[in-house]
């Protein structure tokens, strides 16, 4: 299951135009990257929960399912009201079936070893949850004992028996028995209750070459910069007459007019930069008027409410 229903508030105003799972990295959506990753791991069925900008998501998922039709079955789980991660997972129970499964966050870009995580989980019969953990990255908020057993989540201070903390990767393996313990709250709350009951929640630590959470505008821009690696990547349908320096990612049907200059920018599909504009270190959507200067952040004209 891919968690993709959230609003992405820290990425506003961009998420008023496009739900976060459809943000493009090197001109491919996060969901397309995930679909390829799942297929490479031997997964043949995926469920994606949907709430924010639902029609846009549903239309895209239909098209994505068509392009992966012989490789990956993709089904949406529509939430009329936004449910917590626990509630969203519970709602998708019938779609997920009665086998063990993986749960991933749509806004994580990584080469985390899904197969090895699944093997670790399945090797421990009866285990409810195995979290994928990262050493020394991001906010370390999962407390572990010396045997790698999880003791607590987001504890404000060290808990008894804690020997280290690691970071949740945004990926976990679960038994279908987890559905008996889910309510409408956050998954972490369900896990805390299970720990209080003495249930075993374990983690498996892996240090991937790539791991990025596009939780903010800066994170999203930095991920494209890292993957572009100094290159300019231009979609075949973009029209470029202006200047491109540094690295840039230019989306489908984007237009950069003669006399416009861009440097180190992510330019969304359909965006345009008029003559005399200059954009640097920014994310560009929509039509940038002539003579506009954009340095950092984004240029975005959100839809009218």
Record the SSE blueprint.
Layout lengths: L1 E2 L10 H4 L6 E2 L2 E2 H11 L4 E6 L3 H14 L5 E6 L6 H7 L1 H4 L4 E5 L2 E3 L3 H9 L6 E6 L7 E3 L5 E4 L10 E11 L12 H10 L4 E5 L5 E3 L3 H12 L3 E3 L4 E2 L2 E8 L4 E2 L4 E7 L4 E2 L4 E3 L2 E2 L2 E2 L4 E3 L2 E2 L6
Parallel strand pairs: 1-6, 4-5, 8-12, 14-16, 15-17, 16-18, 17-19, 18-20, 18-21, 19-22, 20-23, 21-24
Antiparallel strand pairs: 2-3, 6-11, 7-13, 8-11, 9-10, 9-11
Structural features, described:
This protein has 305 residues and is an alpha/beta fold. The protein has two domains: 2-213, Spore Coat Polysaccharide Biosynthesis Protein SpsA, Chain A, CATH 3.90.550.10; 230-299, UDP N-Acetylglucosamine Acyltransferase, domain 1 (3 Solenoid), CATH 2.160.10. Helix content is 23%, strand content 31%. Strands 1, 6, 8, 9, 10, 11 and 12 form a seven-stranded mixed β-sheet that branches. Strands 14, 16, 18, 20, 21, 23 and 24 form a seven-stranded parallel β-sheet that branches. α3 links the parallel β4 and β5 (73-78). The longest helix is centred in the first third of the chain and has 14 residues, at 54-67. The mean pLDDT is 94.
């Amino acid at each position: 299951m891919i968690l993709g229903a959230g609003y992405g508030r820290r990425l506003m105003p961009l998420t008023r135009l496009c739900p976060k799972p459809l943000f493009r990295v090197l001109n491919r959506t996060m969901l397309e990257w995930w679909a390829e990753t799942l297929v490479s791991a031997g997964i043949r069925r995926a469920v994606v929960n949907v709430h924010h900008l639902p029609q846009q998501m549903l239309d895209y998922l239909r098209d994505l399912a068509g392009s992966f039709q012989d490789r990956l079955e993709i089904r949406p789980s529509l939430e009329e009201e936004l449910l917590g991660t626990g509630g969203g997972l519970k709602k998708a129970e019938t779609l997920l079936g009665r086998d063990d499964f993986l749960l991933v966050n749509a806004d994580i870009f990584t080469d985390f070893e899904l197969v090895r995580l699944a093997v670790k989980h399945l090797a421990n019969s009866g285990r409810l949850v195995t979290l994928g953990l990262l050493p020394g990255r991001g906010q370390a908020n999962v407390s572990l004992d010396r045997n790698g057993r999880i003791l607590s989540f987001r504890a404000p201070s060290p808990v008894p028996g804690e020997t280290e903390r690691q970071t949740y990767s945004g990926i976990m393996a679960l038994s279908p028995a987890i559905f008996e313990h889910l309510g409408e709250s956050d998954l972490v709350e369900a896990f805390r209750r299970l720990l209080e009951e003495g249930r075993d929640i374990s983690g498996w630590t892996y240090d991937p070459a790539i791991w990025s959470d596009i939780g903010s505008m800066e994170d999203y821009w930095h991920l494209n910069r890292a993957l572009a690696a100094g290159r300019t990547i231009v979609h075949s349908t973009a029209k470029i007459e202006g200047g491109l320096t540094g690295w840039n990612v230019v989306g489908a049907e984007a237009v950069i007019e003669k006399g416009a200059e861009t440097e180190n920018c992510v330019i969304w599909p359909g965006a345009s930069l008029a003559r005399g504009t200059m954009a640097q270190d920014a994310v560009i959507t929509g039509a940038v008027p002539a003579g506009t200067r954009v340095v950092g952040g984004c240029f975005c004209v959100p839809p009218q409410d």
